[in-house]
Structure formats: C-alpha cells, structure tokens
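User: I'm new to structure prediction. If I give you an amino acid sequence, what do you actually give back? Let's try with this one:
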Amino acid sequence: MSTALSASHPAHAGQVTARPQADAGSSARADTNAPARQRGQRNASVLVTLGTLLGGAWEISRRGFFTAGDDIGYWLGVVGGSMMLLLLLYPLRKHVRAMRGWGSPKVWLAGHMVLGIGGPLLILLHCGFQVGSMNAAAALYSMCIVAASGVIGRFLYVRVNRGLVAERNALGELRRQMGFDGERRSMLWFAPQVQESLNAFEADVVERGSVKAGAGRHWLRLLLVLPVRSWSVRLKAQRDIRLALRVLAREQNWQGSLLRQRQRQARRSLVSYFVAVMRVALFAAWERVFALWHVAHIPFVFLLVIAGVVHVIAVHAY
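Assistant: Good question. You get back a string of structure tokens that encode the predicted 3D arrangement of the chain. For your 318 residues, that looks like this:
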C-alpha cells in the first residue's frame, strides 16, 4: 500500500500509480486458517464428547439403577466430591511458590480438566439431576457454574487470546506496508498531520486497551465508544487527505482522473488501517472481558466448598 501514493512524489509525478497491495490483515489471517480449522475440529470433538457424557449420565440417572442413599450413589458422591476438592490443587500450584516446581504445567492442566469434567458428572449421577434441600441446591448450582466457567474459559478465552495475537501481527504488517513503521517513506508523506493523528488514535485505543499494559479498565469504553470514535477520526482523516491531495495535484498539474485515482487509493488504505486497529482493540477488550468473567466464578468456588462440607456433615449426622 505504501507504493500506492508514494508515486505522488514530484520525482514520480508522471508515472502510473501501482495497484494497492492486498490487505495485509486479510493475508495474515489467511495464513492461520489451517491451524484454526484444526483447533475448531478439536474443540468440536471435545464438545461432542462432553455432550455424550452428559447425555449418558442423564440416561443412567433416569433408569433408576441406584439412588443417592444407597451404596453406589453414596460412593459416587464421595468420589465426585473428592475430585472437586482436588481441583483446588491447580490454582494453589499457580499461587503457592513452593508448589510451582511440582511436575509439568501441561500435566497439571490435563489433570485439572479431567477432574473438572469427571467430578461434576459423578455428582450429577449421585443426585440424579435432582436437588433436595436448599444446601444441596446451593452446592449443585455452584458446581454447575464453576464447571461452566471452566469450559467457557477453555474455548472462548483461548480463542480470543489467539485471535488477538493474529490481529496484532496483521496490524504490524499493514503498518509496515503503509510506511508507518519508519523503515520506509510513509504513504502519507504529503499529509504528516494526518499520520500524527492516526498514530495518536492507534496508541490510545490499542495500547490503552492492552491487558498487559494494565489498562483493562478501559475495555467497556473500547466496546461502546470505539466504533463511533473510529468513524469520526476516519472521516476527518479522509477529508484532510483529500484536501492535501488537491493541493499536491495543483502543484504537479495532475489530471482530474489521476487525482480521483489517488483519492480512492488513499480511502481504501485508510479503511483497511482503521479496520485493523479496531479489530486489535476489540479483541483486547474482549480478552479482558473473558478474563474478568473467568475470575468471577471464584465466589462460587467458596460457596461450593462450604455447601459441600455442610451437605456431607448433614448426611452423616442425620
């Protein structure tokens, strides 16, 4: 894209402008299509497996092979509850320094996922997908919320995080092609004030929206205000570029068709740039949303533990 308007320099005034290069964001995202399809197939397989296990547990509970009060139902509850308690070892390993060297993180994550699936399934078999007392209902619903947060975090948060990396790479490539990285002459060499405003806009919505930059508190502003602000800044930039090209056309005696061609090229490049910036900012905002949502289940973990302990005491006491 940087070649599209660089021909407007006086040394190249009589040359025919080259056709703009393909959108860097699209080409960069196309490179990740194959891995994305593979991840999609794996995710679909996991979801089908989860659905099959849940459906099987439901069917078994409907057959009446056991109840929560007999030996089978009792030990299903014991094993399922123990698996739910063992789930706490994974966050403890992440936060307790003495435990961080215990085993491979991948093994811990795999074990956490197995416990997070097996424990709730056994509890559902134990209770037969029914609740009795208020305490049992609190324990069951808390368990379902915690399990759902883990599943959603496994798929959506990871997907958003990977998408953010891809979009940042696409934006970097687009900036390189447009000459915004300082390694080549900018396609907006004739309108430096426009490039300054674009750099300021990008720094605000991308850097301030970055979770790593500690500005995740701006995620709501990005989601609600960014589309309107982007539209406003883009219209002003298009107007300034159009005026700057008219001045350049008078200085170099361009024909009207050449001026219109350069204006169309500038408009297409500008739209591609704003789309890339918005995608990075919105992915960063959604990453923060899912990160906060994933943490929001922590109170339900404590409620689950308390309700589970009370439930066990009540069962053995009465």
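You can read the tokens as a compact description of the fold. Here is one thing that stands out. Confidence is low (pLDDT under 50) at residues 6-25, 211-216.
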